Every structure is written in structure tokens, then in C-alpha cells.
Amino acid sequence: MNLRYALLSDIHGNLAALDAVLDDLADWPDATLLDLGDTLYGPLDPRGTWQRLLVESETRRVLGINGNQDRDVLERRPSATLGFVVDELGDAGLRWLQKRPASILVDNLVYVCHGKPGDDTRYWLEDLDDGLRALADINADAADIAAEILVCGHSHIPRVLTLPDGRMIVNPGSVGLPAFRDSDPPHAMQTGAPLARYARIEATDRGWLIAHRAIPYDHEQAVEQALDRDRLDWAQWLSSGWA
Ligand SMILES: [Mn+2]
After folding, report:
1. How far is the CA of 122 from the centre of ligand 1 (A)?
2. How many CA atoms lie within 13 A of 56 on its CB side?
3. Opening angle at CA 198, ends 220 and 28, nearest 5
4. If you measure from the C-alpha of residue 206 to the centroid of ligand 1, how many angstroms do you get, rounded to a whole number?
5. Positive or negative CA dihedral for 160, 182, 12, 176?
6. pLDDT reported for residue 1
7. What's the 125 CA to ligand 1 centre distance in angstroms?
């Protein structure tokens, strides 16, 4: 068995970005695709994104978990875009979401969560005041996890970080939303580029090799979809990568 995994997080219903990432992965057909959640929520193309992942799973192993905003859809947490997403997905799409867990251990090697272990709403690596959280705090969240490598999403910021025991935590960044602003607490996350981000991780003789990828795609298509749904905020984030 090869030990190759493509990490896709925070796709957020951006089919144009997902298509570009899957095109980029054409030379890695035997890699497992790990979807780190916040897959479908947003004013773009939730249904198309869901369908594209189903098609991908016909030719590649695809494993996914839910993020906080997938959960928001399932729990019908009110937002400007909730009704659109629920209507687009219909019962079958919602059932697909419902089946996904909050975290998984893949091949007894790769631990996958959305935010941090046990909490899909918190950043594992980032502190809003200091940039990174204290290493002791990051490490404490990893203490009980029996895995060689740990992966998370949610912050939309690509990173790789080494723990004192040598294990790594990898955040691939966001496929579909390169910046955002949140109100609870008020803060912005931004990469500064309108690119689709993902990561490849592979076990080698020298240890795990991590490759972050930044993929150009037709982001204007996503901007148009956001504008069609009166989401000027998303349109700005998608067009620039700044929030
Ligand atoms: Mn999230």
C-alpha cells in the first residue's frame, strides 16, 4: 500500500476551485483524498461540489469528515446562506453529510479533524493575538492521539508544524475560500491570494514529505456565484484572498 494522501479542506462549495485541485491531482491517481470538512457550506455550488466528490470516489479512495459549518447546515443554524444550501442539497445531500464523522484515524497513521481534536470550532494552531498558539497548548491537544501524522483545517491558513516528539501537524489551507472574516470573536483570516490551496503528504524513507500546493483557477466564476447570492463579502474574499 502506498502512503500518499491528498488533504483537501474547507472546499466551501467552490466547485471551480475543487475542479482545479482535482485536475492538479491527476498525476497522483493512487493517493487517498482526505476531505477535512466545511465541504459544502457557502453561496457558490454546494450541490455540484457534493456531486463532484461522489464522482471522484468512483475512481479514488475518498474519506471525509464534517466541519463546523457542515454541522451548521445539519443543525439548520440560521445564516444568510443556509436556505440556499439546504435547498441545493436536498434530502440526499443532507443524508450524505449526516453520515460523516467529526474525526477519523486513517490507516492507523493519519489523524484527521476539522478544527482541533474534540472541537470543530477552534483553531488547533492559530492564536488570534499571537499568530501561533503556545506549543505546549498545541501539544496538549495531540497528547492522546495514536497517529504518526495529524491533520486539521478550519483556519484556511496552510501550515506545517513539528511537535516535540517529532510528529507533524499539517493544515493544507482552504480549497475554496482563501480569506474570510468571522464575528465570534471578530477576526479575519487571509492568505492574500485568490488561489486554491491543498496539500500532499507522503511517507518516505526520510519521514513524511509535505507539499503545499497553490493552484490558480477561474475564481471569477466563484465571484459571480457569490454576487448572484448577494454575498458581497464572499465575492471580495474570493477575488483577492484578502478579508
Ligand atoms: Mn470551519
Report:
1. 8
2. 28
3. 110
4. 32
5. negative
6. 66
7. 13
Number of domains in the chain: 1
The range of the structural domain enclosing residue 186 comes to: 4-240
- Nearest alpha-carbon partner for 33 in 4, 1, 71, 70: 4
| 87-115 confidence digits (pLDDT tens) | 999 999 999 999 999 999 999 999 999 99
For residue 188, give the CATH number of its domain.
3.60.21.10
State how beta strands 103-106 and 149-151 pair.
unpaired
Q: What is the pLDDT of residues 226-240, one digit of tens each?
A: 999 999 999 999 999
**CA 144 to ligand 1 centroid distance, Å:** 23
Q: What is the mean pLDDT of residues 59-82?
A: 96
What's the whole-number mean pLDDT along residues 161-178? 98
Burial category of 61 from C-beta neighbours within 10 Å (exposed 0-12, middle 13-18, buried 19 and up):
middle
Please, are residues 188 and 156 in contact by the beta-carbon 8 Å criterion?
no
Residue 82 C-alpha to ligand 1 middle, in angstroms? 15
Average pLDDT along the chain: 97
For 106-175, give the DSSP string: ETTTEEEESSBTTBTTS-SSEETTTEE--HHHHHHHHTT---SEEE--SS---EEEE-TTS-EEEE---S
Sorted by sequence, the CB contacts under 8 Å of residue 53 that are 6+ apart come out as: 18, 35, 39, 62, 64
Q: Distance from the CA of 11 to the center of ligand 1, in angstroms?
A: 10
| Rounded Cα–Cα distance for residues 153 and 34 (Å) | 11
DSSP letter at 12 equals: T
Q: Tell me, what amino acid is at 177? A: L
Residue 131: what residue type? Answer: G
**Residue 24 identity:** D
